[in-house]
Structure prediction request, 261 residues.
Amino acid sequence: MAGVTTDFPQNGPTVELTGDDVDHAAHTAPFTGAVAQEAGMERLEDAEDIWSGEVSGRIPLKDLPPLPPRSHGFFMEPLCGVCVVTVFSLMFIGIVLGTRGASDNDDSDHDRTIRDISQVPVYLVWAEAGVATLCVLYLLFGGAGVVKRSEKTCYPMPPEVERRIRQRRCLDNMPNISGPQKSSYCVRCLVWRQQSSAEKDPPHHCSVCSRCVRGFDHHCGVFGRCIVRANMPCFVTLIAMLPAGFMTAFLAIMAGGISQD
Prediction:
């Protein structure tokens, strides 16, 4: 959606308001250049005189409206990922332990070196299952990349947003507000989102997680969480455990065949 550019006489720069992934009607917020210059960098200590004197002091964090409720998918989608990881882990463990049990029940003489080799897949499969479990737990509960409310992220609050909150009016028809240095203010989470130079994608408000995240790559419908720059190594490691499990099972089968010869 095209942005709305607003000029004000306070000798400040022009501020462009954009929808920023929200399909709302354009709304002009009286966000002066002096305040915009501070936004996204440091909190503004005093908020007086930035909105025609109507806003006297900022709204405390504890008095802000609650964060948007999580969607249904946030709770249901992880069930799919947990089931997939559990099934494959049990399958690989069963294959490896099954081949080991067959070789242990063989009454013929075996070389000690061959027996030691047959134990390697057992250690590997348990290690892979453990790594996969840790990765799933981090993805689900780590909260990587989430922009949390704090003194630094919530202030200075754009005057139009603060006015609506004080009047107990809904913010749903407002677009996000653009600030300097690739920053933007999310009117749902009520936080400033600053894009760092290391992030190729701007911060994003996920409609499923109902939170703003930095370094957004995609929302994973299997695990029900946003994959961002901070948890991407964990996500890649988890995916890599699948082919690693197949290779370990193959090695176990081969080692079991050798031990029976």
The first strand starts at residue 4 and ends at 6.
